[in-house]
Amino acid sequence: MRSGKYVWAVIYGVLLSAFTLYACLDTFVIQRVYEVPDQPVTKYTLGAQNSETSGGAAETSDTAETDPSDTTDTVGTENAGYAAEPDVKITEYRYNDTTVYVADIVLSSPDQLKTALARSSYGKNVTEKTSVIAADNSALLAINGDYYGARERGYVIREGIIYRSTRRQGAEDLVIYRDGTMRIISESDVSAEELLNDGAYNVFSFGPGLISDGVITVSEGYEVGQAMASNPRTAIGQVDGLHYVFVVSDGRTSESAGLSLYELARFMSELGVSVAYNLDGGGSSTMYYNGEVVNNPTTNGKRISERSVSDIVYIGY
């Protein structure tokens, strides 16, 4: 009798372990490329006044101030003075014991601000390094995106196509419209379909928003989930018109402490940004420029290495 119970206990333990292992693999390892039945979607062309309908897949403590004008190095300038090409200047700053890289970007057309998915596919655990996705898309400049694949909910709109329309409770999204304008919205206030109909071209769901209408909107103690107070960070912002900044900070090392969200917001405010949004950070934070990784990506501070991610934001021609 006892031996029978023991056998069943062993079988139960084995099955439970197998299920737990599968659940972990399914969550973090097994790649799934999603294909959603065709449905009418409105796909916009940047800068265009009219749209076309097509069938497509449908389914992202107070600190001492440091003046960002106090720079330590200019990393590079590309294509300055050419009206038809993006003007990109990357500068390295020291801000609150942290190394911060700022790409100052002036575009001649909104379609030079682009997005790309890892392996050109939308799915779960479909990832590549930021530098690899950037190189595959001939990007001049790139940063990691919102790592949409790490979540089951939250709007994902890329280049005028809805990939995911399920709301994420409390999510603040960054909307980039066809004309290049950026705005921060709450998913609880508007559907993905409404955003698309209003001209949204790309929508990222990570957050939070950092600055709106020139005003810092994040509190000093706020953080994302269980994130540490000081982290490597990635953010995107708009100064005005087609003038943007990509911001990436190093962190978690003795050379670079990392920034809180409030510190990041203050830094970007001092850059004159009118809208700013926090993208995926930590080990994902990567800036790629002209064929090379500019910053020092790290997950635990012990090794400098890029983390593979779901998507990027980039500047192309």
Quickly list its features.
24 strands; five-stranded antiparallel beta sheet; alpha+beta; eight-stranded antiparallel beta sheet
Account of the 3D structure:
By secondary structure, the protein is α+β, with helices and mostly antiparallel strands. The protein folds into two domains: 1-30; 36-315, no CATH class. The protein is 16% helix and 36% strand. The chain contains four helices and 24 strands. The chain has helices spanning 2-28, 130-136, 192-197, 261-270; strands at residues 32-33, 39-44, 51-56, 71-78, 87-95, 98-106, 113-117, 123-124, 128-129, 141-144, 156-158, 161-164, 172-177, 182-186, 200-204, 209-212, 215-216, 233-240, 243-249, 275-278, 287-289, 292-293, 308-309, 311-315. It has an eight-stranded antiparallel beta sheet, covered by helices on one side. A five-stranded antiparallel beta sheet has the order 7-24-10-21-22, covered by helices on one side. A three-stranded antiparallel beta sheet has the order 14-13-15. The N and C termini lie far apart (75 Å). Mean pLDDT is 83; it is low at 36-66 and 77-83.
